[in-house]
Amino acid sequence: MRIAVLAAAKSIHTIKWVKAFAKNGHVVKLFSLPDQKAPPGVLDDIRVHYLHRGGVAGYWLCARELKKQLLQFRPDVLNVHYASGYGTLGRLCGIKPVLLSVWGSDVYDFPNAGQINKRMLIKNLEAATAIASTSYAMAEQVRRVHLTDKKIYITPFGVDTSVFCRCGEPPKDRITIGIVKALEPKYGVEYLIRAFSLFKNRMIKENKMPPNGIKLEIYGDGSLLPSLKALAHELNIEEEVQFHGAVPHAYVPRIMSSFDIFCAPSVEDSESFGVAAVEAMACEVPVVVSDVDGFKEVVINNETGFIVTRRDPVLLANKLFTLAVSPELRYTMGQAGRRHVQDCYEWADCVRKMENALTETAMSSLMNRRNS
C-alpha cells in the first residue's frame, strides 16, 4: 500500500508510525511543516517532504504545494495526524481518501477556545473519510464535539515490549519515584512535587525511611521548570528532587527501570491515551496516575497501579506511601502491568490495527467511487 502521512516529523509518535509502515513493506512518504523537522538522521530511511511555509500560516498556505506533491506520489490513502492544524491542511488540499488521526488537545482543548475553532474542527472531521483515535475515551470526545456516523477506528499507541522491559533494578536501599513528561501545566507536575513533600513527611513520621532515603526524578523540560524548582526549594525537598531535562526516547526504558514507582498526575483529559503509563507498566513499574481519560483507560485501578482524583496531592501521597512500604505490592502490580500491556498494547498489534484502518479507509473510498 502507498501511504502518505501528514504530520509533525519531529514527533516520536509520527516517527514510530512511519517507520513501522515502511518496515512492513508499505511505500511511505511523510509530509511535514519545515519548523517541525525530525532530529538529524532519525528519518534517513523514510522519504520526507518538508513544505515551504511553517508556523500556523503553513496549515493554510501550503495546501496547493501539498496537493501537487500528493498527486505526484499517488497514495492509496492519506493519514493526517492532528485534527486541528494538519487536519485543516489536509482538508484544504482536497486529496482523498483521508484517515484523520486525532491526538488529544486537538479535540479536547482546541474546540473549547472559541466557536471559530470548533467550526474549523467540525469541518475537518466531516472532510475525512474515516477517523482514528488512540482511545475509546477520545472517540467519545470526538462524538461529543460532532455527532458523526463516520467510522472511528481505535488505534492505540502501544509499545514494543521487547524494548520496553525491565532492564536493571532500582537500588534496594532507596525509594525512587519518577516521571517522564514535559513540564507544562496539563501534566500536573506541581501536584507530584507537593505530594512528594507530604510523602516524605509521612515516611519520616512513621519511621519508614529507607537507608538511602527517597528520590523524585523528573525527566522533561518545559515552561514550568523555574517555578517547579522554586516549589521544591520552598517545600525544602530540593535535595531529594532532581530535574534531568529532556532525554532521547531511546533512553526511556532504562530510565523507567530505575524507578520504584512511576507517577503521572496529569490534570486535563487531553491526556487522552496515557502512553507514558503504558511504557512504565511494560517495564514492570507500578504506576500512580490521575483520573484523566487516558489513564483511566490504560491503567487497571488497584491491579496495575492506583488512579487518584486529579489535583489532589494528599491522595497522591497516600498511594505513593502504600507502594513505597510494600515491595511485594510493587512487584505484584509491576508484573500485572506488564501482562496488561502485552495483552492490550503490544506495538506490533497496534500497528496491525492502524494498517487495517488505513486499508479499510482506502478500500471504502474505492468502492464508493465505483458505485457512484
UniProtKB/TrEMBL annotation:
<dbReference type="InterPro" id="IPR001296">
    <property type="entry name" value="Glyco_trans_1"/>
</dbReference>
<protein>
    <submittedName>
        <fullName>Group 1 glycosyl transferase</fullName>
    </submittedName>
</protein>
<feature type="domain" description="Glycosyl transferase family 1">
    <location>
        <begin position="171"/>
        <end position="339"/>
    </location>
</feature>
<dbReference type="InterPro" id="IPR028098">
    <property type="entry name" value="Glyco_trans_4-like_N"/>
</dbReference>
<dbReference type="GO" id="GO:0016757">
    <property type="term" value="F:glycosyltransferase activity"/>
</dbReference>
<dbReference type="Pfam" id="PF00534">
    <property type="entry name" value="Glycos_transf_1"/>
</dbReference>
<keyword id="KW-0808">Transferase</keyword>
<dbReference type="Pfam" id="PF13477">
    <property type="entry name" value="Glyco_trans_4_2"/>
</dbReference>
<feature type="domain" description="Glycosyltransferase subfamily 4-like N-terminal">
    <location>
        <begin position="2"/>
        <end position="135"/>
    </location>
</feature>
